[in-house]
Amino acid sequence: MTRHAELVVPGGRYVLRRARIPGCFLHAPSAFGPADADGSFLVDLLIDNGLVADISAAGASMPADGPAIDLAGRQVWSTLLDVHTHLDKGQVIPRAVPDGTLEGGARATIADRQFWTEEDIAARMRFGLQCAYVHGVSMIRTHLDSHEHLAPRSFQVFRAMRDEWAGRIDLQAVGLAPLAVFRTDWGNRLADLVLQSGGVLGGVTDALGVYEGAGDAEMDRLLDAFLMAAAERGLDVDLHVDQTEALDPFALPRIAAAVLRTKFKGRVLCGHCVSLALQPDDVARETIARSVDAGLDFVTLPTPMIYLQDRKPGRTPRWRGVTLAQELLDAGLKVAIGGDNCRDAWFPFGDHDMVDTLHQSVRIFHLDQPFSRALAMAGPMASDIAGAGRHGRIAVGAPADMILLSARTLNEAMCRPQADRIVLRRGKRVMDPLPDYAELDALAGMPA
């Protein structure tokens, strides 16, 4: 058998024979015969000028002539999505030195902003996007720190990056600010900027968002103002919610109540929600039920959260720092997995590699029974949450954007890093290398 990394992808019109595709990536997968033990289907794909022209059960109806690659049952996935990142603050190691705490991350980020010129933000975003592209990510939603004197600069860079990367990575932006700004005129002006940039309105509900110790009634007023600003402009919203181990204030049920109270019609995505896992069982069940009523979506960020949460000097952490992903899924709610911070003041690791994030998520959340549920959380379910259309699916008529793995089963896929993966974009193999960290050395403030 030809070694996986040495497979030659012909381009133009060709067939991928005996591709094993997890059912979550396919529309009506049962049409392709019986599933294997992983819920994957053995199929042939016809690729024609960058599009998936046909999918059929393996050996059923593909042309016998013309170029073909026999994948011999290797896994084929759609390219993946990362619907919660922070490209604007990433790639600042060792300029910023994390201390592993939430409060330290906030302080170090504020200090690092002295270097955030347009050129600096663009260089770091470009580096992160190149990593994601090579690893097989085709859609990213990035939060942009949106304080009054920073947001115009960050959004200008974002719009330039969105144009520069069009056709490689589809980008969405979230204007992220403390809910407290919706007491002020800046909240409405930020919403206007988000609208002009085709983005999503963001907010932070807890102490990290300068909640200022306000009581429940004030949080309700801020949430109403936030949702009203979004509704008036037809914007979806994306919130950082309950990011600490503190049980009170507990914002998630108040968000659900605010959505129902205001009759907000847009998508509402709640990120983090880690304290949900620490609430008493009856409170957690009631909160999940309210979330169902309000139609909330969720994104969990396991790798930075397991690093940051329950960190105390000289003490091993006692909990994993992640939300109740299985319970939310079991309630019928949509839950995505996101990469979150990457080599920044909050989390010094990461490479915008959603295959790696999936590997870690399966272990952290016990998502191995079945594996396919985890794949959907970075594929079609994440796409539905972000309104990202074709991303996360392999379908006739769609671009041939796929990841070809050397693994045959999902167990094999989770046991090795899949560093020999082949990424196809519009049917052509991505040959670009990962960027060299030395490219960041010239940025202001980087040690010589």
In terms of topology, how is this protein built?
Blueprint: E1 13-22, E2 40-48, E3 51-57, E4 68-70, E5 76-78, E6 80-85, H1 102-112, H2 118-135, E7 137-145, H3 151-164, E8 170-176, H4 185-196, E9 200-204, H5 216-233, E10 237-241, H6 252-262, E11 268-272, H7 281-294, E12 297-300, H8 302-308, H9 325-330, E13 335-337, H10 354-365, H11 372-377, H12 380-386, E14 402-404, H13 410-415, E15 422-425, E16 428-429
Parallel strand pairs: 1-4, 6-7, 7-8, 8-9, 9-10, 10-11, 11-12, 12-13
Antiparallel strand pairs: 1-2, 2-3, 5-14, 14-15, 15-16
Question: How would you describe this protein?
Answer:
The strands form three sheets. An eight-stranded parallel sheet has the order 6-7-8-9-10-11-12-13, with helices on both faces. A four-stranded mixed sheet has the order 3-2-1-4, with no helix packed on it. The protein has two domains: 4-78 and 393-429, Urease, subunit C, domain 1; 80-386, Metal-dependent hydrolases (TIM Barrel). Helix 2 crosses helix 3 (151-164), helix 4 (185-196) runs parallel beside helix 5 (216-233) and helix 6 (252-262) packs parallel to helix 7. The N and C termini lie far apart (47 Å). It is of the alpha/beta class. It has helices at 102-112, 118-135, 151-164, 185-196, 216-233, 252-262, 281-294, 302-308, 325-330, 354-365, 372-377, 380-386, 410-415; strands at residues 13-22, 40-48, 51-57, 68-70, 76-78, 80-85, 137-145, 170-176, 200-204, 237-241, 268-272, 297-300, 335-337, 402-404, 422-425, 428-429. The model has no long low-confidence stretch (mean pLDDT 94). Keywords: Hydrolase. InterPro entries: Amidohydro_3, Metal-dep_hydrolase_composite, Metal_Hydrolase, Metallo-hydrolase_Enzymes. Residues 213-426 form the Amidohydrolase domain. It comes from Phreatobacter aquaticus.
